Amino acid sequence: MSKKKKKGSKLSKQKAAGKAAQDALDDFRKKVTQETWFNARQGYFLSKHGDSILPNRGFLKGLEHPLIQIAPSKAAAMRTIREIDAEIKYTRSVQFHGAYAGQRTGDRIKCGDSEWLVTGSPKLVEPIKGDWPNLRRLIETLIQTEIARHALYSWIQTQYKAIRRKEHSRCPVLILAGDANDGKTMLLQLFTTLRGGRQTNPIAAWSGEGPAWNDHLVGCECLNVDDSVAPKNYKARQKLATKIKESIFIGAVTIDKRNHDSFTLNPQPVWGVAMAVNATSNAIRTIPALEDDDMNGKAVVIRTRRADILYREQGDSAASKRWQAYEDELPAFADWLLNDYKTPTDLPDGCHKSRSGALVYLDPEAMSELHRAGPAGLFEEVLLELRDQDYFAQQTRNPTTTAELLSETRNYCGDRDRRIPESTQVAGMYLAQIAKRSDGCIECAGENRNHSKLWVFKELPDGNPF
User: Fold this and answer.
1) pTM: predicted TM-score of the whole model, two decimal places
2) Is 387 helix (H, G, I), strand (E, B) or coil?
C-alpha cells in the first residue's frame, strides 16, 4: 500500500473522529439548552429534573465534567460552555417562574410584558374503565336530591375537563353546606386529588382583611375556602364575592406580587373555587354574599346530609384504608365523567346550565339558612316581630314606602338595634332581597306618585295577612 493511501486513510479517520466529537458536542448542547432557562430578574439558571424545573445556581460549573469527557480539548469544552451560557441567556430568559394552574412543566406564559416559566404539572388522576361503588355510595347518601347530584357531577366534570384542556372554564363556585362530619370535606378533598392535588386557601388575599398578595394562588387549580378562617361579617363576604367574580368570571387576572409591580396573566389560570361549610347560622356566614344580581348564576349551593362513609364505625383508626379505598376508585370515576356522564335535558325551575357547562343550582334550604344569617334576613326578623304587633299591623295593611317602614321599625325597636339598616337606600335594597324570595314576608306593591316603591306584607296561608 502506498504512503499516499496510508496518509489519506489516517486523515479520513481524523476527520471522522473530529466530526463525531463535534456531533456529540452539538447533541449535548442542544439537549442542555432545551432543558435550561435563565431567570433574568434574579440572575440564576433553571434546569429540568424529571417533571419539575428547579433553580440550578451551579449550572455552568456542572457542565465542565461531562463536556471534558466528549470535547477534543479543555479549551473546546470551555468554549462550548460560554456558547451555551450566551444562547440560554439570549433565547430562554424568563422573568417569573413557578407552578401555574392548569399548565404543564416547560410551558411559557405571558404576564404583561414578561414571561412566566411553568415549573410543575398537576398530578391529574388518569381515567381507567371500571366501577366506583364506594364513591357512588358516598355521593348518593351525602347528596340525596337527584338534581343536586347532577349539579355536583356537572361541576366536577367541567373542572376536570378544563384542566385536561389547559383552559379556564369560568365555572361557578361550589358550596357544600351541611352538618358537621357528614362527609362533605372528604368529598371535596377527593375532588381535589382528582384535579391534580394542588390546593390553597385564597381567603387571606380575597377577604380584604390581610395582605393583598395573591401570587401564591397561581400554582393551584383548587382554591378551597376554609370556613374556619373565613371572615363572617357581611362586608367581608361582599368582598369575597367580588374577588371570586373578578378572578373566575372576568376573563383576566391581575397578580399582586410582593416587591413587584402588578401584572396580568394570559391565559388565565385554570382555577376552581369550592368550599364546605356547616349549615348553621354562624358557620354559613362565611359563604360569599350571593344576594346581589351580579352574582346571579355564579354559585352552586348544595345541601348535604350525613353520608354512609366507608368504615365510619371504626373512626379515625380507619382513616388511611378509608381514603385508599375511595382514592382507588377515582380513575374509574374520572372515566365515567369523561365518557359516560351527560347532564339532563329537562331541568327543574331555578336550575339552568351556565356558560361553562356546569349546572347552576341553589338548594332552597341552604339558601334560607344563608338569608337568615345575612343582613336582609336580620331585617326581615325585625319585620316579622313587628307584623304581630296590633298597632303596627293596623298601619301596614296598606302599601307602605321604604322610609315609612324604616321609621316604624326604629320607633318600635330603637335606633340602636343593629338589625335595622342605617339608611333608606340600604333598607330598600334589603326589602327587594326579601321580596325576591318565595318565602319572604314582604312583596312589592308598585310605586306611589313620587316613584317610591311601595311594600306590603304577604298574606299568611290562612288568608290573614297578620
Assistant:
1) 0.85
2) helix
